[in-house]
Amino acid sequence: xIGLLASLAWxxxxxxxxxxxxxxELHFQRGVQxxxxxxxxxxIEHLLLSHRLAPNRNTAFNLARCYDELGRPDQAWRYxxxxxxxEDDPQMQAPALQAMARLEPQVARVQVRSTPPGxxxxxxxxxxxxxxxxxxxxxxxxxxxxxxxxLQGHSPATVTQMFTAxxxxxxxxxxxxxxxxxxxxxxxAVWVRSDVELDGEVILSxxxxxxxxxxxxxxxxxxxxxxxxxxxGPVPGSSLAAQGDTDFALNVVVEDVRAQRSSRVxxxxxxxxxxxxxxxxxxxxxxxxxxxxxxAAVADALQELPRRRRADVVAVLAELGAxxxxxxxxxxxxxxxxxxxxxxxxx
Length: 347
What we know:
Blueprint: H1 2-5, H2 18-36, H3 40-53, H4 57-69, H5 73-84, H6 90-103, E1 108-115, E2 120-123, E3 130-133, E4 136-140, E5 143-150, E6 157-163, E7 167-174, H7 179-183, E8 191-198, E9 201-207, E10 210-213, E11 222-224, E12 248-255, E13 260-266, E14 269-270, E15 275-276, H8 279-285, E16 290-292, H9 295-304, H10 307-317, H11 326-334, H12 339-345
Parallel strand pairs: 1-7
Antiparallel strand pairs: 1-4, 2-3, 2-5, 5-6, 8-9, 8-12, 9-10, 11-16, 12-13, 14-15
């Protein structure tokens, strides 16, 4: 174990910015020191921070070993499995596969699938954190567990089931579209405009056949994209609409037989994860109608923004990105290096 913990062999490509890499390395070394001192819980804390900053198969394997020594087979199996992602060399795979085979008699392996796919999976309670995105295989301790699956625009699905050790189980959940989402299709013909504002500045503005990104700063960097088959929804209603001015908001204008009317929904994000809480609304009313055509120009404009404002703008624009490393690129952009995110925005 010491030999494995003693070197941070590589990080995922592309390499993180210097400050992120240094922070990751610092937590990694502190994890090494804690492990050598026999403080496995503290070692896990630092290794988790290191892995979050710079995801790394080596770090994942070391986390698994720590959990393994602490007698936590479900968490150990999970991180052994993470350490195999992207590893094609059978010799490198062997230690993790052998450890997983040894732990399987102690855990239940639960294959979770959702219809439609892509549901976020929680075990027990939401406040215990996300356990994955369906389809996914979860290692659980034997016993009765409640799995909660959530997908924007759909009613949550809850499955409670008894799982036994050394078993392979399937959980298939169908999530029904919410009534507001179904009714929203009727408004497609009267939708007029949607935009996202931050302190009065428009970040994204969309109307039929037209899309603007950072219009006060840029031009000709984006284009209208025919929306997805599903019509916009759910419609922002009075229960969601902000009562007054907000610093960061989604505005939607629709028109009926009487007049135009607008809804204003306050937006918020997780300050640590750049996660936009209302991403579903944003996708329905704005993002599925807009595509970036000049990612480099958008990247340059983002780098010119003050860091605090850039973080909120990145939280919106990152939803337009494609690829496995959008989250990492967004994190690096907030710190000032937006070149990679710009490349991922154009697809």
